[in-house]
Structure formats: structure tokens, C-alpha cells
Amino acid sequence: MQQLTAETFDQNARAALNDPVLHGALRNLADNFVTRRQNAIASVDDWEGLREKARAIKEETLLHLDEYLSQFVENAEKAGAKIHWARDGKEACQIVIDLVKNRDARMVVKAKSMAGEEIHLNEALERSGIEPVETDLGEWIIQLAGETPSHIVVPAIHKTKEQIADIFVEKVGIEKTDNVDVLTKTTRRILRERFAEAEVGISGVNFGVAETGTILILENEGNIRLTTSLTKTHIAVMGIEKVIPKFADLDVFLKLLPRSGTGQRLTAYQSLITGVKKNAADAGPEDVHIVLMDNGRSRMLGHPVTRQSLACIRCGACLNACPVYQQVGGHAYGSVYPGPIGAVITPQLIGISKAKQLPYASSLCGACKEVCPVKIDIPELLLHLRAEITDGTAGGSANNPERKRRFAESLAFKMYGKAWSGQFSYGLGTKAARIMQKLVVRDGKIGKASGLIAKLLPPLGAWTAWRDAPAVAPRSFREQWKDGLDKQG
Length: 489
Known about the structure:
The chain is α/β, with parallel strands linked by helices. 52% of the residues lie in helices and 11% in strands. Strand 5 (207-209) and strand 6 (214-219) form a beta hairpin. The protein is elongated, with a radius of gyration of 26 Å.
């Protein structure tokens, strides 16, 4: 599969809209996850209070991130973990590669890690002659398919059972079957062999506790537990924003994350790792390395609006609620972070000039803000990024065609606002619109405007390319009101 990029979101989205198989697979979002989430949060006495508490913890942490990172590093090192700092994805990949080579390992098992996907760790390992083996079922399926995740929590949600069966026939060599039990047992047999062979395991981190130097990793399949305890070396790639102050804070996030993401009350496995094993006979790795990665996060930290991006706990609830994501899926975003949160994080990570279409990949309906467990105001972030693009503060020269288009849009809306704020100009405009719309109105709506009309009125052509526009009423409210007064005498 050709890897899509954020720069071509518009084209990616149009292609996705014409994919009926993708729409069938995505229908599970609304049918399953949304309903399960609603049932799960009903089991919490004060859901809104829990969200407020989580947001307060995150805000306190991000305002004093340097202090909590220092505390986390000090306590993790006391427990025997080795800390590495990476300014960007390239540095983080090289640190991991060097650690794997120090073990003379040619193969590593990986637990699902968004941070690893963010820095394209698998590709970097393969270029260095190291085979990465994904062990999360969904991640393994899309690795076999040569694709990238399309959802933060359910990476292979875009695949139907029949498509997965075909992948197993081609890549694993079994006879075709859509029996889930057979496919699962085949996966378990193959991955267990790889767990037994591997000397190095790589994982992400859900939370790092400053108070104890502990990292927490959540999962449902047991693969992370095997990745972090069977191998001799465990490498955890962790974004610097994953730190939280106290162990007791985990109680808040362990209630919020699974309920918001998959509709579970708790995830099946919660691996808490504090340094290396204390006795030779114990299970666990001989050495633990934690790679603390910035990769653009410091830039987000510097502004009060963009800072809230770092409060994200990667639950995927905003994806499940988003009408845009439900229609186009995750690959259209061209980023490891799709959906509403991806539309605000990706431009900040890779540069807004490379992802300037993403802040517009939203209807601003606010559903993402409504379901976010840590109350991130995603619409505010989207508007903030759009303003940067329109103002040109996001970069680009004055002669940039995109900047000129944004300036023209800004000017058009100002003229629109001025015309509609005056009684005379408003009345004249609506009368003219009633006359002009006779050319395009069908059944009381303005359908697709094409040809000469679309050329004369580009905004009308763009709007009606995918939706109907409401027709101007035959008579204004003022006219109807005046008629009513006249009849009353």
C-alpha cells in the first residue's frame, strides 16, 4: 500500500469517500465503541468530576514539566533504569538502534507504541538490519499488510475479516478461513516463537510516575507483558508529556482511559515497571532503558492554547465520535495520529506547512471536545491553527499561493460581514440572491452548482460539490412580519 501523507489530505479523503469496504469496516465505530463507552461511563458516579480532576493533574504537570521530569529521572535511575534523552525522532531511533546492537540482537519484539510509530522506528530498525516484529494483534496484521495504523487504539479497524483472512493466506501460508479462532491461534503460535527468540523488547509508555520512577503500559492481549518480561533488555520510548506527579494519580487515568477508548471498565493487563528486576531468579529484563523524547513537544508547551495538546492520553475517543473520521478513516490523515487530535498534533509535530489541510478536516461540531476525557478543547486548537495559517504566522512567503487564497477568504468574509450588517445592503443582497438562485434551485435547495455558475461563484461551487445549500426564502421575515401587521389593521 502506498503510504499517504498529510499534505494530500483532500485527495486522500476523496478516495476514502468512494471506498464502500472501508465504510463497512468503520461502521463498527458507531455501532460498538460509542455505545460501549456510554455504558462504561454510566458506571462512574461522578464522570464529569473525574474529567475535571484529570485535566487539573495534566495542567499542573505541564506547567511544571521540567520539575516532574527531573523527579521521574532521579527515581527511575535509583531503581536501576537507564535514561536517554532524544531531541527528535532521528535521535530517538539511533539510541534504540545502538542499544539493540549492543545486545548483538538481529530481531526485536515490539509492543504497540504510538511513539514508535510517530518516529518511524520500524523503518529505522530495518535500515540497520534489525527485524522488528509487532506483537499486538492489530499491529501485526497491518505490519504483514505493509500498512500503517489507522486508529490510535484499534490500528486495524479499517480491515474486514475477509481482508485479514487473505493477508494470512499470502503472508503466513495457511489455508483461507474467516474463522476468528483459527486466525487467533495461528497468530499466538507464531508470535510465541518470536517472543522466545527475542533478546530485546521495545514498548511505548502510557504514563510515567515522577514520584516512583515507574512506567505504566496498558494492553488487552498479554503481548506487552511478554515483551517486557521475557526479553533480557527492555527499551521504552516515552514522550516527555507522559509524566504524571503521583502514583495515586493513576487511579484517575485508569478509570478514564479504557472507558473512553474501548468502553472497558479496566484494560485486561496493566504492567507497572520500576527499574530492573531485583533478584536474578525473578522474571524481567536485566536492563531497562527509557528513551525520553521531545520531538516537537517543547514547542507545544510554549503556548497556553497548544499546550493542552500534550494533555492527550491517546484513548481515541475523539476519533470514534468524529463525523469526518467515520467517513474517511485514519489513513487519509497521512499521520500516525488521525482524527481530531491528529489534526491538531500532526501539524505541530511535523510543521504546519506540511499538514496545513488537517486543521480544516473538521466540521467544528464539538463532538471531540464533548467526549475527550481530559477536556481538551480541540475546536479551539483547530481554530488557533487555522488562524496561524490565515495570518501567515505559520510560515511561508507573501507570494505563497496558499497564503494568497487565505487572504482572499479573509477579505471575502469581512466584506460579507459588512454587507450583512447594514439594513439596506442586506435587503438588496437578499433580493439579488432570490433572482440569481432561480438558475440553480431544485426542490427548494441549491444542488450542485457547476459550469459557468461555479466559475462565477467559486465558493458556491465548492460548497455544493458535496452538499446542498439552503435556498433563500421567497419572502424575508421582515416582509412577512409587515404583512401580518397590515392584516391586523
